[in-house]
Q: What sequence folds into this?
């Protein structure tokens, strides 16, 4: 079953067409890397799927539930609020700049949504939170506040926070871009471990080596369209597409 | 002034500290929630509401509080004698007794609350708008409702940010209560002025000043404590 189906997704900001008929699918357990130059619409695509931005047209299905469908005269017709909420809980999003809640300690950052949104009791949520922290190698930081952590540690907490809701798909928007180069490794390692556990993930990244290593599917976007997609070998190895070549060239230099 | 006279004056002024503090606390009690509402109205996406709220804020902050106290205190008596008012309004006005102390207190309090709500509203709005968009987005992506987001994620951070500015307003309010003497509201400044004339001495004014000073200091200490308490995160 495909976990995510995107058909002809389009989105404009004013007269600026940022997404033009984007279509792709993500299968269960797949790790998809989305690459492309700045301004190509990668973030906007993730934000539309995560309901932080309203799409203008197209169809998106998540775990067999329809988020919106193309209306008769073009626009996107969204599902009822209840369905949208259900879909929201199936997807998780990890931000470039973490967006942790500064007034909560690390554990509370992770447990707050399970407790308030899923109505889990606090004790169970904390047990699960501690488990996730252990997995992230941060057991000793449960009582720390975000400002006391390094960027890499903060990003690992934010991954734990997203995982605490047990999402079916996890989206990452450049999870290492706000980090010092020496800290990106610890995040990539965590994502790699999640991939080994067959977590379904869509990762927007500028780390080409990582994309090649971890992803089993690569999407190259430019100017609001998907220029090319395929296995890492197809895209990185021997692409015949001129624009992909040009883009990758810049990363090899 | 003799020591005994000073003691007498101090005791009298102490008695009139009560109406001063009453005005102070009731102003805070009403103007803080009202300020919150005004802040939300000003941020309303429906422009006419936002504009009207802004006009209210501009007037309150752009004209003297003393003038506002006088205007509100005399507005109702003047309206009462005016001829061409709608009947329902006339009925309401007829029901208001403008003689007693209770009316004076309510009129003065109304002026203070309306004025301070405008100041608090701007502080709250600044606080709310200073919270990064990412906080809302993270909260939304985690499935919190709008109301949960506001009360559990945004508001606690706003409170931390507005404590210093609010503390300023509160200390100013301590001293602003003296403006109520303009309509003969029997508070400490009015009494100090009377005692000054009785004894032909400035000492009562100094004593009143000392009272204000002490209350301001207490408020400053309280707020410094709150600020410290909220300093557990950045
Ligand atoms: N809220 C917005 N309002 C107006 N224009 C926007 C908004 N968000 C994004 N855009 C525009 O949409 C285009 C795509 O932006 P987007 O952030 O999706 O690109 P991106 O591929 O994520 O780039 P980057 O690699 O720099 O993160 C850009 O031209 C950007 O200016
Ligand atoms: Mg982006």
A:
């Amino acid at each position: 079953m495909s976990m995510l189906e995107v058909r002809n997704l389009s989105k404009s900001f004013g007269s600026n067409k940022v997404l033009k008929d984007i279509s792709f699918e993500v299968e269960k357990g797949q790790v998809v890397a989305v690459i492309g130059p700045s301004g190509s619409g990668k973030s906007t695509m993730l934000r539309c799927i995560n309901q932080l931005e309203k799409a203008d047209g197209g169809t998106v299905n998540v775990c067999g539930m329809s988020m919106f469908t193309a209306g008769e005269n073009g626009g996107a017709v969204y599902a009822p609020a209840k369905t949208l909420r259900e879909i929201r809980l199936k997807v998780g999003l990890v931000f470039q700049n973490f967006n942790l809640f500064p007034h909560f300690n690390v554990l509370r950052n992770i447990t707050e949504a399970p407790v308030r949104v899923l109505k889990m009791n606090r004790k169970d949520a904390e047990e699960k939170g501690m488990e996730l922290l252990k997995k992230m190698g941060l057991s000793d930081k449960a009582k720390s506040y975000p400002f006391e952590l390094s960027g890499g540690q903060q990003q690992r907490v934010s991954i734990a926070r997203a995982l605490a809701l047990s999402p079916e798909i996890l989206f990452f928007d450049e999870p290492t871009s706000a980090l010092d180069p020496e800290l990106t490794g610890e995040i990539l390692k965590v994502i790699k471990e999640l991939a080994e556990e067959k977590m379904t993930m869509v990762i927007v990244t500028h780390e080409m080596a990582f994309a090649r290593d971890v992803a089993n599917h690569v999407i190259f976007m430019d100017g609001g369209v998907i220029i090319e997609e395929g296995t890492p070998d197809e895209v990185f190895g021997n692409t015949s597409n001129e624009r992909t070549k040009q883009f990758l060239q810049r990363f090899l230099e | 002034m003799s020591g005994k006279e000073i003691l007498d004056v101090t005791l009298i002024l102490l008695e009139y500290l009560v109406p001063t503090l009453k005005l102070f606390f009731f102003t805070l009690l009403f103007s803080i929630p009202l300020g919150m509402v005004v802040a939300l109205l000003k941020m309303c996406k429906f422009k006419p509401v936002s504009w009207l709220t802004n006009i209210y804020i501009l007037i309150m902050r752009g004209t003297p509080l003393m003038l506002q106290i006088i205007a509100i205190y005399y507005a109702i008596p003047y309206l009462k004698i005016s001829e061409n008012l709608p009947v329902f309004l006339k009925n309401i006005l007829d029901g208001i007794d403008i003689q007693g102390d209770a009316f004076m207190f309510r009129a003065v309090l109304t002026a203070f609350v309306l004025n301070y709500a405008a100041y608090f509203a701007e502080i709250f709005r600044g606080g709310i708008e200073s919270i990064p968009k990412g906080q809302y987005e993270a909260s939304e992506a985690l499935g919190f409702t709008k109301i949960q987001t506001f009360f559990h994620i945004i508001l606690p951070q706003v409170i931390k940010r507005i404590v210093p500015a609010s503390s300023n307003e509160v200390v100013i309010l301590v001293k602003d209560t003296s403006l109520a003497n303009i309509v003969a509201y029997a508070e400490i400044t009015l009494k100090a002025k009377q005692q000054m004339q009785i004894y032909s001495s400035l000492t009562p004014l100094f004593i009143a000043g000392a009272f204000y000073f002490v209350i301001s200091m207490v408020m400053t200490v309280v707020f410094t404590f709150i600020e410290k308490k909220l300093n557990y995160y950045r």
About this structure: The mean pLDDT of chain B is 93.
